[in-house]
Please model this.
Amino acid sequence: MADLFYLVLEDRDLLSLGGDDRATFLQGLISNDITKVAADRAVYASLLTAQGRFLHDFFIAESNGAYVIDAEAARLDDLRRRLMLYRLRSKVTITPLEGQVVVALFGDGALAALGLGDTPGRVTAFAGGLACVDPRLAGLGARAILARERLEAIPAAGFTASDRIAYDRLRLSLGVPDGSRDLPVEKALLLENGFDELNGVDWKKGCYVGQEVTARMKYRALVRKRLLPVRIEGELPAAGTPVVLDGEEAGEMRSAADGWGLALLRLDVVEKAEREGRPLSVGTASATPLKPSWWAAA
Model:
């Protein structure tokens, strides 16, 4: 039997965005194409500053004639406030969605157990709510949104409760950021942090807030740093710890767990370390950067 695991993501919360103008409203704000969202498809997207810097990332699904936005719980009020600033005369409602939880479902066979293929964002009905292939990367498994009182449906489907370390180990080994844990607010740039390859940007849609800077980085090949998974030997460094090679700063650590971490690294230093077969130094530990299979070299 396949190893199937689940984790209730208590650090996530939900907004419901409804109203006649909901699609037009979001289309002018977010990095992805809202017209992709349908009953059978969810997307990953970001809200940026006018200078193209990260503010929020989130998942968007459709349910009962409204968009359901899965975002960071601790920053949900800020996201709602920012969206409300843009509402003006648009016919939209933006309200907390109470009584629902977000659950990660992962492990070999998790997608098959839910009747899903491996297409990122694919949605199916589940336990009175919905489940979808993680819109960023199928290797992360699925995300489900359902009423808290229906959680018993998950172990009934063959999944065993897991802990945060196990899920973070999976996420970090795949090189996938987790919101503001890995993306400094008003500083991070989408293309340095994998949003293109992780299906968070649509290059064919019209303008959105921060679009000009994001497009310029892509078409002028201005990406000089990338967020990469690193294998850590030694004491796990705190987020923000400098990463160095021969005294030369290579980048900065982000989140880490169980021997894995993410670091925003200069590509030229990574290439030098690879050529010479040497790890990078971070605090008292060593860190070996890896290029995930989904990563497209700049």
Q: What stands out?
A: The mean pLDDT is 95. DSSP finds seven helices and 17 strands in the chain. The chain has two domains: 5-174, 224-289. The first helix runs from residue 22 to 27.
